[in-house]
Amino acid sequence: MENFYWHNPTALIFGKDTVKELAERLKADGIKGVLLVFGGKGTFKSGAYAQATDMLNSAGITFSEISDIKANPLIDKVREGVARVKAGGIDAIMPVGGGSVFDSAKAIAAGSCYSGDVWDFFEGKAKITKALPIYGVLTVSASSSEVNNIAVVSNPKSEHKTSITSPVLYPKVSVIDPTFQFTLPEKQTVYGGVDIIAHVLERVLDGDEGDELMDEQGYALIRTMMRVIPELIENPKDYDLRAEYALAGAMGHCGFFSMGRKARGDFSSHRMGHSISVLFGAAHGATLSVIMPAWARYLYEDNPVPFARLGEAVFDIYEGSDEEKALEAIEALEDFFRDINTPTTLRELGVKEEDIERLAENASRGQTFGVLSRLEPEDVLEIFKLAY
Fold first, then answer.
1. Rounded to whole angstroms, how far apart are CA atoms 83 and 79?
2. Cα–Cα distance, 349 to 287 (Å, whole number)
3. CB 104 within 8 A of CB 77
4. CA 179, CA 243: separation in Å to the nearest integer?
5. For 233-292, what is each residue's pLDDT tens digit?
6. Residues whose CB falls within 8 Å of the CB of residue 102, separated by 6 or more in sequence, listed in order
7. Domain 11-180, CATH 3.40.50.1970 — does that match?
8. Phi-psi sector, 4: left (phi>0), alpha (psi -120 to 50), beta
9. Residues 270, 363 contacting (CB under 8 angstroms)
10. In the chain, which residues fall in CATH 3.40.50.1970?
């Protein structure tokens, strides 16, 4: 286990009817006006919008709104939010939604304290040193954006989906009321669940054999999600299932599973998945159920141990060599994705064979990446071919 420093300053308020508890937090911090950031109809359907605005009105806190935040959030909406903040009267950002909304809120919070274009942060042209405080209400669990310091945004003009990170981007307070997720479409529950699983797989499959304690915690979370997702498909309003799902979502990518690792995780699959999203508009979770098995198939023969251990811990695969157990584990993971009706091929995402080279170029951008194995541009191309 490696030396590490981990600090997560986000206060998490979890449970039924907890949005009202934000009022005292906001008043104690002297917040008089907020920018409410949200998506669309789902925010109203869940009841989250009504509870958030009722809380703000009762507390005497003014608010303006930026709505219509899409999945795979766009930089232009972030710029719109920054302009709204700079017009005055706003002390904090309040996302009410899922990861895309929280990511947009973080980018707005940083961009509002910067004189240049907020996309500079994503291109590495400027460093984030200051941001407005964020007080969030989660309605879709998946990315852990409610408890981490990462924001992922797309720029269609440059065909680039990438992230920023900074200690000042942690939400100050996040509310997770699992009842807001009762009304989610089945696909959103499934894709969000795949993302949660993938965040942990990016750690336990990174080849670090010196952090077994955290690996075991990761295997437990994956087993829980593989039980919970199918049950939620049948019982979408089961509170205890939603609560387990939401807590797993918060844990998956908050940094917990990176403690003691040589690296924060691999995240090659995420990078390749981002290219599918920005070029073809595919849901993030759907890109991961396609890419992760293909990435695993490409690498397992040279790196069988992490996949074999996954097979033992999650799928009860004990017979055979490490290579045999590894391949069986990859097949079992892919079977699970099929069982919950999420895509496992690029064809299902509308990608054509002639698009594969463009995808590989977008993901690679002339660079190597990866932790389990460094991927050259030609490796990335072969993985996309396997995923087709």
1. 6
2. 8
3. yes
4. 8
5. 999 999 999 999 999 999 999 999 999 999 999 999 999 999 999 999 999 999 999 999
6. 95, 134, 136, 138, 143, 145, 146, 151, 171
7. yes
8. beta
9. no
10. 11-180
Q: What is the pTM of this model?
A: 0.95
Query: Contact 132/90 with Cβ under 8 angstroms?
Result: yes
* Domain 186-387 fold: Dehydroquinate synthase-like, alpha domain (1.20.1090)
Which residues belong to CATH 1.20.1090.10 in the chain? 186-387
CA angle 347, 350, 354 (to 5 degrees): 75
Is residue 192 packed enough to be buried (19+ CB in 10 Å), middle (13-18) or exposed (0-12)? buried
Q: Which residue, chain included where needed, has tokens 């307070």?
A: 173
| pLDDT tens column, 14-50 | 999 999 999 999 999 999 999 999 999 999 999 999 9
5 Cβ contact list (under 8 Å, min separation 6): none
